């Protein structure tokens, strides 16, 4: 049987699978067979020639516990040795490494194709590299994708069970050494939280590289504000050659607006249940993944665990040659039993961003936030628009028209000495609205240089004019602009079981509209930060009625903002709004 929750899911027809050997990659035409790919072979123009012979087991059927058959491609060394398997679990086509949509994407980012063999499933490990070093790579098509049977679900217990079954099937194969690992970025990262928590006996270790961990809080309703646009972008990957249906998160978003719905509860990951060794990769800059990755790290049950916080977008990071070599050290230790001193790797390595070309990376620490990080409040002065150490005795309200010009209010402080913030920031705001019964509030922490210019940095190689256009008010995952957060005021209720003074968390189980004249307390969780300021530089915090960072990727709008009337931010007396920042009392070197 499929899992019970599927009875409550809403489905739509999948998109057609165009099996012409182009749209979904040169190996997409269906045929169960064994192929030997020869050293020096180029899978498609522009891709890296193969560095060794590879045995490809194509369209291998795998029967899941409910009788559904999915198909996978498996890449193996030709030596006949028993090898461990790296698994890339996602709805993205198993053969789509040369698909035009991915070629175009990586060209837009400035990465090109020459970094991989063309066998690489989107966001997954390159089989050519790993086979050369004694591994198998398994690229499955999830249920309902391409020729795999069943209907596609998205996140949650069905994927956990299916991934479990695939892992146990792989471990039993004659060519397997019985050890497996999950790896990959984005979808391939957050699927790991679900599958690993199911505790497949032959899952040896995991490598989640930037992935959300809660379908409601990190995808559908970030800050309680609905965002169907990015979900629609993801849905086009749900293609079927068999007439399968796909779980329609947009329909579910509209039908179930509260996180307590069973459909959303099933999409909450439980990293605390994970016990296998984990090498977790995070960044401050990913407006889709940062929150979920750090939340998962904080609750991760693994005793053997490592966190590396880098300063790039996930794809250039994951496919960087040096980073791939380091990942191999992790896998070699656990999957091949090599004594390479991996356990001596610092538990945490973090970055400090300066937006001026001098980022500090791989700073070792025993924990995150590191020792010396101290939560410090900076109070908002409505009259001077300053951030200051002490609150004003009297309230001085600041007003702006929601959605108008400027539609925001900001506060600044200029540093008289070099200053660093590393850890978890938040905003505490006392606000009211006139002319409506709700507010969508967006907070953005910026860095200004000594001349007052707002700084940011690209986290992908392409800095060209087109990407400048896309990232000026959007494509926020490609250009880092500082810590951010958002909250719909009617969804402000804090979760007493999870929320702390350091990190707010919400139940999202009720809607509490605002009355005229009602001043509400908004605790807004902000994205994790590692940011440095030199003497003479300025921190600016923006409180806005607009999603000023915009959508996650080019061409995709942001969330559905619902703002009207006049917002009032209170800044003193019993309503002393403030920004809380993790001040480093000892600086990095």
Automatic annotation (TrEMBL):
The keyword Hydrolase applies. Keywords: Hydrolase. Residues 328-580 form the Xaa-Pro dipeptidyl-peptidase C-terminal domain. InterPro entries: AB_hydrolase_fold, CocE/Ser_esterase, Galactose-bd-like_sf, Xaa-Pro-like_dom, Xaa-Pro_dipept_C, Xaa-Pro_dipeptidyl-ppase/CocE. GO terms for molecular function: hydrolase activity. The keyword Ribonucleoprotein does not apply. Gene3D superfamilies: 1.10.3020.20, alpha/beta hydrolase, Galactose-binding domain-like. Pfam families: Peptidase_S15, PepX_C. PANTHER family: COCE_NOND FAMILY, PUTATIVE (AFU_ORTHOLOGUE AFUA_7G00600)-RELATED, PEPTIDASE S9 PROLYL OLIGOPEPTIDASE. This is CocE/NonD family hydrolase. It comes from Loigolactobacillus zhaoyuanensis. The lineage of its organism: Bacteria, Bacillati, Bacillota, Bacilli, Lactobacillales.
């Amino acid at each position: 049987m499929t899992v019970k929750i599927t009875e409550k899911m809403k489905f739509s027809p999948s998109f057609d699978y165009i099996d012409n050997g182009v749209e979904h990659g040169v190996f997409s035409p269906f045929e169960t067979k064994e192929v030997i790919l020869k050293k020096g072979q180029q899978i498609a123009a522009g891709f890296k020639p193969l560095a060794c012979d590879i045995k490809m087991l194509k369209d291998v059927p795998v029967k899941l516990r409910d009788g559904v058959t999915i198909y996978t491609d498996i890449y193996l060394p030709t030596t006949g040795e028993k090898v461990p398997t790296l698994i890339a679990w996602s709805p993205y086509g198993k053969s789509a490494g040369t698909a035009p949509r991915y070629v175009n994407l990586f060209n837009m980012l400035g990465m090109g194709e020459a970094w991989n063999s063309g066998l690489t499933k989107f966001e997954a490990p390159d089989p050519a590299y790993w086979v050369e070093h004694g591994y198998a790579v398994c690229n499955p098509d999830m249920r309902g994708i391409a020729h795999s049977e069943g209907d596609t679900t998205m996140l949650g217990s069905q994927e956990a069970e299916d991934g479990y079954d695939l892992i146990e099937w792989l471990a039993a194969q004659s060519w397997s050494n019985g050890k497996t690992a999950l790896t990959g970025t984005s979808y391939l990262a957050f699927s790991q939280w679900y599958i690993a928590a199911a505790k497949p006996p032959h899952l040896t270790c995991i490598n989640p590289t930037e992935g959300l961990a809660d379908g409601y809080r990190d995808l559908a309703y970030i800050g309680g504000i609905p965002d169907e646009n990015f979900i629609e972008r993801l849905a086009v990957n749900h293609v079927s050659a068999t007439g399968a249906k796909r779980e329609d998160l947009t329909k579910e978003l509209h039908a179930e607006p509260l996180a307590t719905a069973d459909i959303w509860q099933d999409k909450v990951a439980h990293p605390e249940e994970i016990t296998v060794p984990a090498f977790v990769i995070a960044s401050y800059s990913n407006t889709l993944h940062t929150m979920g990755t750090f939340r998962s790290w904080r609750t991760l049950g693994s005793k053997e665990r490592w966190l590396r916080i880098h300063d790039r977008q996930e794809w250039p990071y994951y496919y960087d040659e040096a980073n791939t070599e380091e990942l191999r050290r992790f896998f070699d230790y656990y999957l091949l039993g090599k004594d390479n001193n991996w356990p001596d790797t610092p538990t945490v390595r973090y970055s400090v961003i300066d937006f001026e070309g001098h980022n500090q990376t791989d700073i070792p620490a025993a924990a995150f936030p590191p020792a010396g990080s101290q939560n410090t409040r900076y109070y908002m002065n409505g009259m001077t628009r300053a951030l200051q150490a002490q609150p004003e005795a009297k309230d001085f309200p600041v007003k702006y028209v929601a959605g108008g010009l400027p539609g925001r209010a900001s506060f600044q402080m200029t540093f008289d000495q070099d200053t660093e913030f590393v850890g978890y920031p938040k905003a505490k705001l006392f606000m009211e609205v006139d002319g409506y019964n709700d507010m969508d509030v967006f907070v953005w922490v910026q860095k200004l240089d000594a001349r007052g210019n707002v700084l940011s940095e690209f986290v992908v190689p392409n800095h060209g004019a087109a990407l400048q256009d896309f990232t000026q008010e959007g494509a926020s995952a490609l250009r880092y602009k500082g810590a951010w957060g958002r909250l719909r005021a009617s969804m402000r209720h804090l979760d007493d079981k999870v929320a702390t003074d350091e990190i707010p968390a919400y139940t999202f189980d009720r809607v509490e509209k605002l009355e005229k004249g009602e001043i509400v307390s908004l605790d807004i969780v902000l994205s994790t930060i590692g940011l440095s300021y030199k003497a003479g530089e300025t921190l600016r915090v923006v409180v806005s009625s607009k999603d000023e960072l915009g959508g996650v990727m080019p061409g995709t709008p942001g969330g559905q903002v619902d703002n009207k009337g006049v917002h009032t931010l209170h800044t003193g007396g019993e309503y002393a709004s403030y920004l809380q920042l993790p001040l480093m009392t000892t600086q990095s070197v």
